[in-house]
TrEMBL record, chains A, B:
This is Chromosome partitioning protein ParA. CDD domains: ParAB_family (cd02042). Residues 4-169 form the CobQ/CobB/MinD/ParA nucleotide binding domain. InterPro entries: CobQ/CobB/MinD/ParA_Nub-bd_dom, DNA_Partitioning_ATPase, P-loop_NTPase. Pfam families: CbiA. It comes from the Bacteria. It comes from Chroococcidiopsis cubana SAG 39.79.
Length: 198, 198
């Protein structure tokens, strides 16, 4: 069983969107369970509105539901404390920390990373404005210079995500050009993670 | 994997003591992990002070640590809401609800049980005063009349439990007559649970 935990030091950075789409990616590789550990119940509500290609488990039933899974993706509440992040990192193969590319997020992300030390984690740039904006690349570079391990893949901003959330589906299952581009971002992220899990 | 969840609608009723000693019982049957899901971290601290015959897992690492377990005992925070208890019951083979034999606990316990309906749970009388007191038997009878499924075994009050907690051991590993009597109570409870799990 491979466990991925998605968390962050603050909310509103595409944490649940990332958990949903990583679980979609892994559902094509093996039995996948997404554990909704966020009191907002974002992913459980998403699943209830439509159809997702994997099981979403209430955290109160998680132990039972993950017993036979190949891949487990855990969506946690935002965790402002780096001690908590360290404990989370010990409980999974990889901790994924989504962050938006804005200057207000840079400093706390650098501090988080410094506190995490040698833990198994990667920052993920999300809600990245489209070309010709260079905000994503710039933030990725700033994080790397600050010693933060960052995924090469960045998740571009698209109106497809709220649309998918409302329909209760994965963006993989929405048939328009922008949604396909967004799904390609997650395919690319999934491939990076598969390399790390090897 | 068999999962037992120990919870209650209020604290101070021997919840963590029960989780520790059920885990001790099951550690003689197979690989056992106790998951400390209580923010008080009572069982993690207990384990850190001494030596217990099973692993105690921080809830943030639980998924990873239970993957290969035969028996999982989950110690949860006290849950005053019966909706929460219902969700917990769905995530385990058996929900164990410790309660002290006092008149203040009777009414809420009867209400809890009414709300739980057909869920897989048993009430457990704990902190029962020694003979010639009849408080334990009386409460067990009152609960049964109220339609609450109750374990036949009752856990007697003894100073051995705080002693074991301070030493960081199970009461099984304390060598005096009262501690042996207390451990016998848990042996008897464990046998009842094995029957239910069959």
């Amino acid at each position: 069983m491979k466990i991925l935990t998605v968390t962050g030091y603050k909310g509103g950075v595409g944490k649940s969107v990332t958990a949903i789409h990583l679980a979609t990616y892994f559902s094509e590789k093996g039995k996948t369970v997404l554990v909704d550990g966020d009191p907002n119940r974002t992913t459980l509500s998403w699943a209830a509105r439509g159809k997702l290609p994997f099981t979403v488990a209430d955290e109160r039933q998680a132990m039972k539901m993950v017993a036979s899974a190949d891949y487990v993706v855990i969506d946690t509440p935002a965790r402002p404390h780096s001690d908590d992040l360290k404990e989370l990192a010990k409980g999974c193969e990889l901790l994924v920390l989504p962050t938006a590319p804005d200057v207000l997020s840079l400093q706390p992300m650098l501090e988080t990373a410094r506190d995490l030390g040698e833990a198994n984690y990667r920052a993920l740039l999300t809600i990245v404005p489209p070309y010709p904006s260079k905000e994503g690349e710039q933030m990725r570079e700033d994080l790397r210079r600050g010693g933060v391990p960052v995924f090469q893949t960045m998740i571009r901003r698209t109106s497809g995500f709220p649309k998918a959330a409302l329909a209760g589906v994965s963006i993989r299952d929405i048939d328009d050009a922008r949604a396909r581009a967004a799904w390609n971002d997650y395919l690319s992220l999934g491939a990076e993670i598969m390399e790390i899990l090897k």
